[in-house]
Design a protein that fits this description.
It is a single chain. By secondary structure, this protein is an all-alpha fold. It folds into 2 domains: 6-71, 434 Repressor (Amino-terminal Domain) (Orthogonal Bundle), CATH 1.10.260; 84-124, no CATH class. It has 7 helices and no strands. The chain has helices spanning 6-20, 25-32, 36-43, 50-60, 64-71, 96-106, 110-124. The longest helix has 15 residues, at 6-20. It is elongated.
């Protein structure tokens, strides 16, 4: 049995979405601001960046969520998809102060996070 990677399944789904919309790879490449070769590589299973996937989805007039739902990927069966609250971000992990700050902010309610961001911006933004 052949193991199919997430990137391969995503690429297949993007290709079928493109075909459903009667678009060519050239049209998608132009709309997304990518090369034809790169669009072809994505559809063949090359692992693209998240930003690139969003560009391709925009060019196709769809969303990443719709693409993933149609393919049945990225979702645990029988469970609702969680909101993007638990997304891992790239932060300097060797900076203990940064870890403390991020940990503190994560524990805040949404309204308090917004207030904290406004406070940080007004205090430290050089504008």
């Amino acid at each position: 049995m052949k193991f199919e990677t997430f990137a391969h399944r995503l690429g297949k789904r993007l290709a079928s979405t493109r075909q459903e919309k009667k678009m060519t790879q050239v049209q998608v490449a132009r709309e997304a601001g990518l090369s034809l070769k790169y669009v072809s590589m994505i559809e063949s299973g090359t692992n693209p960046s998240v930003r690139t996937v969003f560009k391709v989805c925009d060019a196709l007039g769809t969303t990443l969520e719709e693409v993933m739902e149609k393919e049945g990927i990225g979702k645990v069966a029988g469970k609702k998809t969680r909101r993007m609250q638990n997304v891992q971000v790239d932060l300097p992990t060797d900076d203990p102060e940064m870890r403390k700050l991020v940990g503190f902010i994560r524990r805040l309610e949404t309204a308090d996070r917004k207030r904290a961001l406004r406070l940080i911006k007004t205090t430290f933004d050089p504008k």
